[in-house]
Amino acid sequence: MPPALSRIVAGPLGRALSSRNARIFFGASLGAWTGLWMHRIGVAWLAWELSRSAAWVGLIAFADLAPAVLVSPVAGAVADRVDRVRLTMISQAIIGIEALTVAGLTATGGISIGLLFALEVVSGTAACFAQPARQTLIPAIVAREDLPAAVAANSLLFNVARFVGPGLAGVVIAAWGVAPSILCNALGQAFATLSMPRLRVEAAQRRGHAATASLLAETLEGFRYAARHPGLGPVLVFSALSSVLLRGVQEILPPYVERLFGRGAESLALLTACFAVGALVSGLIVASRGRLGGTTRIAVLAILAQAVATALFAATGHFGFALLCAAAIGASASAHGISVQLLAQTAATPAMRGRILSLWALISRACPAMGALALGAAGEAFGLRLPTLLAAGLTLAVFAWGMSRAGGIAASLEGPRQGEAERR
């Protein structure tokens, strides 16, 4: 084993993955996410085959991700007051059933673009509940000192799946068609759902607080808590703005693959895998840090790198160079996502953790959906290159604002008081 990798395995990341609970939890996550990425590639390609429209591909991505706008804040409040293991199981089961339905309809010729849209809304809604429910369990399965590495490992394994899933999807779609690729998501979700009862989680961590007000009041309390917080509010706004502008590219790749580079499904899988390779490498680096200091700076600078890489990706017509740009986009997006999630996990008090993580879910799901919808619509009118370059240019202004606030955010989120917040 290379010395650098040995240090990572023996360091904070290795400790975070060493317990029985962590192996079950992250193993189930890897299975579910691999299936999810196979589903996403399959559905994106299916939408393109059904419509030959970049706008429709963007709309299908929007259908899966946009329910977060309305549902995620409520889902966070639910995760703070119910059995989080059970909520995760129910949500994952619904996602699996939806994948099974899409695969069956596709195989029998019964799918249409409108029906696909409706089914993806169902799956996206269920995912809004699964994400905060699962993430609130992370502090319950590792020691407090290993939480930074565990949060990084969670994002890291998501990107491992993003590497493996598209590669498998490309092979499966090329050999057997779209339906088997989507069916793999149903299998992955079933595996993850059946793994959850094996976790040994203390009752206090498994269930959130007793209801103190109506569900709506507790949902609004989450927004007020984030808005009043001197660090959480600004870092979440910064992440939301940059996600709307940059993340849509990754959600509507099929039109880019065919219109900019004149290629097919195998190249789509290769391109998506390059996003994941970059994310995997940067994820390992961020995970191996095992500390909170400097995390805000990484989160902000990563957006500058992502904007530059996205502009180069849109500007080039050379597929080989586009693969390098995709790796850079994946690396910077992963570094930003891990950093923001780590800051949110450590800053939020236990009673508010589900609601704060639901806001992160809102950003990571709804903002890319809005970006995908806008890029898809603009792509039909102006071509894909110009709108993508414009979005990358606007991101530079967001970056400048983030840099101006980085010192205050870091002072609020990275100071020694965060350890006290975790103990309350």
TrEMBL record:
Keywords: Cell membrane, Membrane, Transmembrane, Transmembrane helix, Transport. The keyword Transmembrane helix applies. It is a multi-pass membrane protein. The chain crosses the membrane at residues 24-48, 54-78, 99-119, 163-188, 231-248, 268-286, 298-315, 321-344, 356-378, 384-403. CDD domains: MFS_MefA_like. One of its GO terms (cellular component) is plasma membrane. It comes from the Bacteria. It is found in: Cell membrane. This is Putative MFS family arabinose efflux permease.
